[in-house]
Specification:
The complex is a heterotrimer of chains A (400), B (154) and C (175).
Chain A: E1 2-6, E2 9-13, E3 18-24, H1 35-50, E4 59-63, H2 67-70, H3 75-79, E5 90-93, H4 99-112, E6 118-126, E7 130-131, H5 155-169, H6 173-186, H7 201-206, E8 209-212, E9 214-215, E10 224-232, H8 234-240, E11 245-254, H9 268-280, H10 286-289, E12 292-294, H11 300-309, H12 318-323, H13 340-343, H14 356-363, E13 378-385, E14 390-397
Helix pairs in contact in A: 6-11
Chain B: E1 15-19, E2 23-27, H1 29-40, E3 44-49, E4 55-56, E5 70-75, E6 79-89, E7 95-107, E8 113-118, E9 130-135, E10 148-153
Antiparallel strand pairs in B: 3-4, 3-5, 6-7, 6-9, 7-8, 9-10
Chain C: H1 21-25, E1 31-34, E2 39-43, H2 45-56, E3 60-64, E4 71-72, E5 78-79, E6 84-85, E7 88-92, E8 95-106, E9 112-124, E10 132-137, E11 150-155, E12 168-173
Antiparallel strand pairs in C: 3-4, 3-7, 5-6, 8-9, 8-11, 9-10, 11-12
The chains are: A alpha+beta (400), B mainly beta (154), C mainly beta (175).
Amino acid sequence: MEVEKIKGLKFAKKQDVAIVGAGMTTWKRRLNETGKELSYIAVKQALEEAGLTIDDIEMVVMGSAPDTFDGLHMKGEYLLDGSGGSDRPYMRVFVGGGTGVFAPIAGYWHVASGLADVCLVVCEEKMSSCHPHPQSGFKGIWDPILERPLTPNLIWIFALEMRRYMHVHNIKHEDIALVSVKNKRNALDHPCAQVAEKITVEDVLNSEPMALPVRRLDVSPPSDGAAALIMVAPHIARQLTDEPVWVDGVGWALDTTMWTNRDLYFPRYVAEAAKMAYKMAHITDPKKQIDVAEPYDPFDYKELHHMEGLGLARKGEAPILTKEGVTARDGDLPTCPSGGLLGVGNPIAATMGVKACELYWQLAYRAGKRQVAKEVTTGVCQAWGDLMQVGTVMVMSNKR
Amino acid sequence: MVFNEKIVNPTELRHWEGKIELYWVYTSGSAGDEFFKALKKGKFIAAKCKECGKVYFPPRIYCEYDFSETEYVNISGEGTVRAFTVARLDKDEKPLEKPEIYAIIDLDGTDGCIVHLLNAKPEDVYVGMRVKPVLKAKNKREGRITDILYYKPS
Amino acid sequence: MAVGKKDISCPPEAIGTPIKDEDLKKGKVTYYEDYPDLRYAWTAGQAISRFLNELKKGRLIATKCNECGRIMFPPRIFCELCFKPIDDWVYVKDTGVVQTFSISYIDPDARPLPEPIIVAVIAVDGASPKMGIMHVLGEVKPEDVYIGMKVKAVWKDEEEREGAITDIKYWKPVG
């Protein structure tokens, strides 16, 4: 039994946790399949990769963001049968956009605690159901008395945060646009990608204004899709594969919903979550020890913002690293080699497919054309969500 | 809290009224689309698991228990009442003009069931009653569950 | 238990059936539409009730925690950092400083607005640093707005006020 402490938190685990399989559906603006069917497709793929059947699954964690998008209350229960949850311990976790990494964190504690030896994690989102526009679904996120009467669009908070970030570090929009260019290009190698394309910085800067500084090509699209991941105990992992990928650390943190009372230039909640995950993973110098990163990139500046929160760049340094090519797939710190949300799509919780799943595939050397050039041992993935509040972080490694 | 400054007059305590103006468009999905297109033609289909033989109604593309694929099979759409309720209030708890009977109907040749309106007198309905579907006129069907007008005793 | 696959590229294939809006309109695929009619009444609670009542009088009010000394705006009945009840009500000014801003071309449903609007986080004078609220700016061109700009609330006429955040029409530059 390992026992460690971080700020009074005790880490005690019964057993290590390995990842042995992952899967995802294609991601598109609108898919004909229902959420249940999408979940089934993703799970089936993950089971096949791992060499398991549904009978081997002991417990299931479902991750799905607000019920508003699918338009189904108790969405976790609705998705149960397509997620392999029938007659099994099953739970849904939900921290908005942060769910894509929080669901595998919940899977981790199922296995690490010794409660399950084989845990299936499924994430699903079907945003196309929500009308008049998926963005309308975010109306309910605002304070009904203080903010909603001002008729806000969700993009406002991103625009306000992006402006603050640019102002504090004196960053130009063209430096941020490079992230969108990189990720959309990376996504050309992803079979499931929705908006993969070759674009230029000028294309981003000249795209339709939404809420300045945010323009159309600074944003990831709403998507339908699902993803799945299988987490197992060491003795199971050894039966299935010679090269499992291990979860070394997990962390999560939330800041207050009173977002207008915070300085938005730095994601403190991500930094706190990373501190927890790094402590657990014995990472003292993330810049040196992390080989590949999948930070959450629903907007181009968000990748930079989150790299800084994750300690992969100093405050204000992430745009410089991007410009120098450090974050390219053949760079020293490949970042969002999947193509991220900007290129592959943004089915909120199901973005697990380009965060936790992609990191697993990279560390398992199964990413095919997306495989990063350098040798990789340790990586970090992260998601973010709620009202600019939550940071969820997972560190993985292919060494034990 | 400064208790002497606490609002005690209820008329000074405020609330804010609002509505979330959203609507949803639900696609029927792979199996659902197959089912509703068949229904439009006046046919009923279910889905049989290729592994365990369980027959799902409404049809699905997968077996929920062994995660195998399924194949579509034709069924009659007729069935047996498993349970029923006599509704006297609508979804907003407003009285209905005439009581409505909603029943769970086990469909012949399947392990599944359908929940639908039963057109019969409340005093005549019993568990185990044989019923059959009544569909809308062919040109009025839209590929929705309401293409079945109701079930009636057979 | 079988052995997992080796030497593969993941995900191996992209499964799913993309459809377009036209496919729905033309009836190529079946679907169901639902327009629920749900209405809500959100209670404002002690702090925001007082805040709204003060807005009607043309004043902004905050609350103070004597332990950390913060003057919190918008007001709340507890200090979330010290986790204790607040100690006092404090009036703050209807002037402030723009912390960040955006020029929005879209409404809540992502439809284009006839005229773009300027939205900002404004830290209010008299409250602790960075205690801001979100509101809109007026009487200023988008290109003239900057972070650090001093602004003042422009109120609706007294008889038009209803005790709502929109009793402030917008904030305009001063000085």
